[in-house]
Design goal:
It contains 11 helices and 12 strands. The protein is α/β, with parallel strands linked by helices and about 325 residues long. The two termini are about 20 Å apart.
Amino acid sequence: MSEPLLEVKDLKKYFPVKHGMFSSGKGFVHAVDGISLTVEKGETFGLVGESGCGKSSLSRVILGLVKRDSGEILYKGQDIRTMDRAQRSKLRMVFQNPFASLNPKEKVFDIIAEPYRIAGQYSSQQIEQEVLRLLDLVGLSRGYAGRYPHEFSGGQRQRIGIARALAMDPEFIICDEPVSALDVSIQAQILNLLRDIQKSMGLTYVFISHNLGVIKYISDRIAVMYLGKIIEVANAPDLYSCPKHPYTQALLSSIPGAAEYLNIDRVLIKGDIPSPVNPPAGCRFCTRCLYATEQCKQVEPKLQKVGEGHYAACHLIGKEAD
């Protein structure tokens, strides 16, 4: 088997937080707590979970926008911290809010041109050609190059953000909730655009969303996150047809009509998510799980193989595959 394009090993990131305005004590938000995963070249690896589970923090740590506390991040077998500027330009990101991620004082041309100017190896004519090419690629008129971000709709601004991410011909892009701020009809357009670009450029995506329908549509494999941990990983069809972890089952059964379609019981998650400052000692989901035992409360479950390419972290799941 070929080496994965991206490999994350036991990655951790804790954010310090004070307990109160007048307290001198500090705690730590366990945003990313021992995550390991691999992403294969050319695939779309989906990452799904409730808001606050650590999805966006994980994406920023992977790209080095936030410093890790421990663990390894390897891109083509190389630690990203040792990569030079040219190598790092192959890893890009599309952000959630297409307005906040664009400089309101810059014209579209300058926003897209910035990576080329920073590289310092392109002439003005080459930069212009690249900017116009990228506008064509994302379906925007070349005449828009002289306009400012506030003159566009949300969907158009996200196309500009995608064009900027495609500058310098990247290989790997993290899409962090790229359609969550858009109308449903516009979401479909952006998702189809991302799929078309992936095919034409041979890109690899990590696609982050809390929307189960969006994740199913765009992803080849999916990881489910809960409170800083990955609790299930599977190919998209397997995850939706045969979810193994009680949390995944609860998520999928929350889709109208899904419980009957998937032949699983309707599961209502009770209670609030535990504090990420003081997570449960055992399974992170044990405080809300209907099937939790004493073992779940005391011993953290590890990801175990439950099918071909299917892994889940739950003490109640027997190994169903060799």
